[in-house]
Amino acid sequence: MAPSHSIVILCLVAACAAPRAVTETGQVTPHQQLRGGVTYSFNGASATAGELFDGFSAAVDAVVEDEAPTYDDTARGLSEGLIAFAVDPSGSSGDIWMRYGLRDRMDLGYRFASGTHIFDSRFQFLGSAKDPTKLWSGSIGIQYSSQSFEMPSLLGLDKLQSAFGFEAKRQDILLPVIISRSFGAKEKYGAFTMGLVLGRVGLDYGFKPIKLVEEVSGNAVGGTPLEAIHDEQSYLTYGGFGSVKAGYKRIYLLASLGVYYQDYGTYQLLDDHEISLSGFTIVPSLGAEFRLR
User: Are strands 274-291 and 219-225 parallel, antiparallel or unpaired?
Assistant: First the structure.
């Protein structure tokens, strides 16, 4: 395996995944009860992972080592990779979470996932935690999170971001509709869950290159730096998921698989070029839930 390929793979593993894993059932946390847990998710984005690999595999070593790199086709591929990484990072994410029953049929949740704070609330419209004969439950929720783009320092990847002066902030809003069937009364042994998700992602990004210089006919033009750019884009994500929750009393294991589609839109590059992205994202998750009280 080539060294640059190894760098890309390590980058993907270290990346912070977009917060799209859904492991909750249709039944909200009962009033004044508290639940918590841990989850490990992987975000596999088909289109953006390809752009990331193509860009980094060709340019990572040259940009880090060159004192005044030229913005040529190779560097352009790297800038496409940076945008792809921010638009929908392929990578893993471990998180811890807690949920509290605010009132009958409504709960609040907080999740901390690899430096990202995620807040959500759900309302239960089908079934009731007070009636043990009701095995079907349904809820609808809203989730909000925001995060800043940062390349890991692993093998100097943060220096690539600095060379391009790349900055990005994203905001994610998800609206999940969740239906589940309980295994036993009040999910005594767990539940099977399925649902649909609609989301909106807003991305604020820009390049402020200091080291990069222009290229004309293959030659740098007197060290002239490229002009900075700034842009904002948004796109919708939608898809579905299925999950299984199994356990007894206070400890449960969770497994979930989500599939989403996005038309990411068109993004501006430093030399007036553009990149358009679209594709599917697969989000498998594993975790554990603890009923605290």
Answer: unpaired
